[in-house]
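Support request from a user on the community tier.

User writes: "When I paste my structure tokens into the form, the page sometimes reloads and wipes my input. The last time it worked, I copied everything first. Here is what I submitted, just in case something in the input itself triggers the reload:"
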């Protein structure tokens, strides 16, 4: 009798595949690793881990994905920022290193995970995504962080890391011709976020070219020194450069104009000084520009941008006189903050090309005359209007107060008339130091919101006679 060997093979193959399908259960190592993680958690009030039960298939547990041979490929536990009880207290068990096939670890917004940087992450060779954000991890970022060369995204935002940014971190970002030839492996870190920590020292200055980095977030730390020159090598692809809320100083470098793909530039609340380079005008794709709270001087360069979405130049040493044309003509602007920018215009004559998207306008501390009545008549979704310390002169009762408005600050102007009923629904109001008169409608605001007027009366000021 002839034995049909290939048929037997086919049979064997089919039954093995069938066996795998029917007994789909996670690998014992993966289950052990995840249960060890769970036992490191002491509080889980919203039950993020309630489906993690020994003896059940861990691939079905909340936050677990198994995409390769029933092995765990991603661990994703995400708390909601607006739900304070979605948090986990505890530390990240190093037993997780048994998840050999892990490709991404996402522990986001769990608020109360603590401990040091999880060193076991160095033990993975397939790990591409690390998002350990908005927790309470502390200590230093390891000096050898640059060893994680296979990473495509690293975010440690919103923790309590201290110490310096290890210079080896630039190894994650570089993609040199040499690497290409020698290893035949492209390194594609596209996101590096270390914002909202307590990092000190300077920004490392050995970034290399041919990089794929699109997002660099270092804001809300305590970094000092200049913007290093090697950052210019990130120019071709970088879209988000966020360095705000640090102690960086020096001039804004000329090379920033080379960042042709830049969408968002945040340099706010640092100690930058001097004038902006003319090359700034070449940032044709910039949508969000925040330079507020520095010591930058005139002149502000002419920008060749097609449309700006949000602009904040407040609290520098600018004397813009007029709102720049490229701002007025923007078809997509929603946030305009030009407080203390030396504006000397008549607001009645401000005719922006678009008013539909505006949700925030701050023109405080300028020499603006005229009236905002026409402008606010056309901003249907405005949330905040701040214009204290100007020379605005108009009847407050003719100001349209849209349903979306939450903040209105007109203090220290020349506003007259009565306080309209419509203000009672606002969250913040300040009409102090104007020429208002008459009874204040029922409201919840402090007296300092109304003082310094000609003849306002009624709560919270003394009663009317
Ligand atoms: C966070 O953890 C600490 C102990 O580490 C604990 O006292 C606290 O209750 C936890 N929960 C929150 C919401 O902070
Ligand atoms: C990091 O890389 C260096 C050099 O490649 C090596 O000597 C070191 O052992 C590595 N460290 C870790 C924690 O992998
Ligand atoms: C950057 O410089 C530091 C020392 O200054 C060095 O340890 C690190 O390896 C360098 N990184 C790269 C990518 O060359
Ligand atoms: C890196 O990106 C390039 C294109 O930008 C792509 O061809 C390559 O596959 C990526 N490499 C990895 C390891 O993802
Ligand atoms: C803007 O870019 C063009 C072409 O890339 C270049 O010729 C010009 O010098 C740049 N302008 C400034 C002010 O850097
Ligand atoms: C502002 O402009 C309006 C409209 O053009 C005009 O009626 C008004 O007198 C101007 N106000 C001042 C202070 O120049
Ligand atoms: C406000 O808009 C309405 C129409 O939407 C118009 O009738 C009115 O004259 C406008 N008022 C001012 C002061 O522009
Ligand atoms: C209102 O504005 C004045 C002057 O600008 C300020 O002193 C006061 O604290 C403000 N009050 C409120 C309630 O914002």
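"...and here is what came back when it finally went through:"
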């Amino acid at each position: 009798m002839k034995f049909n060997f290939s048929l037997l093979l086919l049979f064997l193959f089919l039954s093995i595949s069938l066996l795998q399908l029917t007994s789909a259960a996670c690998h014992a190592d993966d289950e052990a690793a995840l249960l060890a993680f769970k036992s490191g958690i002491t509080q889980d009030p919203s039950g993020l881990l309630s489906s993690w039960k020994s003896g059940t298939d861990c691939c079905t547990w909340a936050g677990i994905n198994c995409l390769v041979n029933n092995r765990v490929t991603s661990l994703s536990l995400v708390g909601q920022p607006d739900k304070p009880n979605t948090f986990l207290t505890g530390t990240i068990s190093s037993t997780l290193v048994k998840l050999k096939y892990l490709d991404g670890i996402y522990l986001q917004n769990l608020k109360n995970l603590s401990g040091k940087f999880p060193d076991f992450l160095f033990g993975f060779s397939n790990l591409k995504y690390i998002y350990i954000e908005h927790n309470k991890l502390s200590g230093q970022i390891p000096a050898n962080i640059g060893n994680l060369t296979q990473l495509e995204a690293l975010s440690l935002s919103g923790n309590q890391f201290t110490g310096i940014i290890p210079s080896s971190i630039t190894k994650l970002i570089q993609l040199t011709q040499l690497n290409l030839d020698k290893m035949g492996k492209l390194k594609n870190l596209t996101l590096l976020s270390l914002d909202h920590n307590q990092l000190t020292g300077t920004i490392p200055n050995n970034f290399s070219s041919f990089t794929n980095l699109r997002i660099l977030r270092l804001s809300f730390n305590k970094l000092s020194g200049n913007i290093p020159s090697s950052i210019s090598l990130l120019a071709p692809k970088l879209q988000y450069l966020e360095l705000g809320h640090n102690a960086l100083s020096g001039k804004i470098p000329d090379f920033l104009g080379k960042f042709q793909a830049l969408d968002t530039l945040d340099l706010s609340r640092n100690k930058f000084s001097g004038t902006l380079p003319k090359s700034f005008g070449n940032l044709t794709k910039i949508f969000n520009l925040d330079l507020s709270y520095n010591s930058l001087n005139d002149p502000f360069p002419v920008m060749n941008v097609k449309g700006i979405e949000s602009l904040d130049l407040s609290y520098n040493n600018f004397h813009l006189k007029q709102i720049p044309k490229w701002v007025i003509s923007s078809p997509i602007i929603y946030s305009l903050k030009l407080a203390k920018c030396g504006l000397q215009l008549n607001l009645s004559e401000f005719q922006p090309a678009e008013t539909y998207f505006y949700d925030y306008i701050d023109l405080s501390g300028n020499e603006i005359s005229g009236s905002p009545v026409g402008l606010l008549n056309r901003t249907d979704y405005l949330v905040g209007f701040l214009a204290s310390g100007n020379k605005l002169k108009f009847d407050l009762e003719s100001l349209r107060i849209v349903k979306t408005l939450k903040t209105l600050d007109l203090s220290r102007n020349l506003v007259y008339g009565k306080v309209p009923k419509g203000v009672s629904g606002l969250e913040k109001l300040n009409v102090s130091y104007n020429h208002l008169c008459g009874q204040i409608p029922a409201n919840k605001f402090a007296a300092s919101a109304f003082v310094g007027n000609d003849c306002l009366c009624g709560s919270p000021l003394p009663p009317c006679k």
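Agent notes: The reload is a front-end session timeout and is unrelated to the input. The CA atoms of residues 439 and 457 lie 5 Å apart. The pocket of 2-acetamido-2-deoxy-beta-D-glucopyranose (ligand 7) is lined by residues 373-374, 377 (CB under 6 Å). Escalated to web team.
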